[in-house]
Amino acid sequence: MTAVAVLRLPLAVDLSGFVKLLQRMQVPHRVSEEAGEQVLWVPANISEDVRSLYERFPAGDPDQQLDIPITQTRQRPGFVEQLRHSKATALVLLLTLIVAMVTLLGENLETIRWLTFLDFRVVGEYIHFTPLVDSLAAGQWWRLVTPMLIHFGILHLAMNGMWYWELGRRIESRQGSINLIGLTLLFSLVSNYTQYLFSGPSLFGGLSGVLYGLLGHCWIFQILSPNPAYRLPRGVLVMMLVWLLVCLSGLVSMIGFGQIANAAHVSGLLIGCFTGLLGGLYNRRKLTSK
């Protein structure tokens, strides 16, 4: 189903009430920011109905029972439609899946060594790591971020993939594909390097550090500059923070889930909160200056 821009309004216009009305009516929609305007996108087949609805209730009216002739409002956007508006999110997940297949979920050491933070070679039963400065001197700068694509086990891959799809789409819809890719690379760089500093030469990987970065970004951004795209259910935020504390306690490793990259998780969350702070303050200032 094709989405069209039904409204283009200045950033100073408060769309939150109207967006809540659309949510209550289960109308598929998304809001993006383009060229200094906020743009409301809806399926093409109901665009005229939504435009008419905005003319009648620009501030929304959640307490009034409405008889609106919008057709198919209870249909959620299909997967193909979501992909069309989440290309960067899908690209990262596609690369992650390809790496999972090529590395046999971390079992193929000959292929995984090209993506790990430190290059290594296997000698007998031991792994010998190449110093990071040597790899960087050889031009292997990709190692600073590619560990995010490595996953060890199907559960590791499935959980990280699910949360990246959920959080990545929110940022891409609000700030665009380029910003999502930039934030993903930044969070990967910071979480990978911090994990290396704390754990020393070791094998680690996964999107978890990036995920906590995306979580922190959405969380703080939403506090400073509320937007429907970044409104996370309270239970999601609490669950991920509790999980972080459980991992830090060592309980997860004790019950046999392997070593957890806690330094990557914590540093990812902190850098995400920092970018959310900067982005939220900038966006709020931009709105108030209009």
Q: Helices and strands in order, then pairings?
A:
Layout: E1 3-10, H1 16-24, E2 30-34, E3 37-43, H2 47-56, H3 79-84, H4 87-102, H5 109-112, E4 120-123, E5 126-129, H6 132-137, H7 154-175, H8 177-199, H9 208-224, H10 234-249, H11 251-254, H12 262-288
Antiparallel strand pairs: 1-3, 2-3, 4-5
Helix pairs in contact: 4-7, 4-8, 7-8, 7-9, 8-9, 8-12, 9-12
CATH class of the largest domain: Mainly Alpha
Order of helices and strands: EHEEHHHHEEHHHHHHH
Number of helices: 12
CATH architecture tag of the largest domain = Up-down Bundle
Domains counted in the coordinates: how many? Answer: 2
For the biggest β-sheet, the strand order reads 1-3-2
Number of strands: 5
In this structure, how is the largest beta sheet organized? Answer: 3 strands, antiparallel
Report the principal-axis shape. elongated
Strand content: 5-15%
InterPro entries: NRho, NRho_sf, Peptidase_S54_rhomboid_dom, Rhomboid-like_sf
Protein name: GlpG protein
Subcellular location: Membrane
Organism: Pseudomonas lini
Structural features, described:
This protein is mostly helical. It folds into two domains: 3-78, Alpha-Beta Plaits (2-Layer Sandwich); 86-288, Rhomboid-like fold (Up-down Bundle). It is 55% helix and 10% strand. It has helices at 16-24, 47-56, 79-84, 87-102, 109-112, 132-137, 154-175, 177-199, 208-224, 234-249, 251-254, 262-288; strands at residues 3-10, 30-34, 37-43, 120-123, 126-129. The chain has a three-stranded antiparallel sheet with strand order 1-3-2. β4 (120-123) and β5 (126-129) form a beta hairpin. α7 (154-175) runs parallel beside α9 (208-224). The longest helix has 27 residues, at 262-288. Residues 62-68 have low confidence and may be disordered.
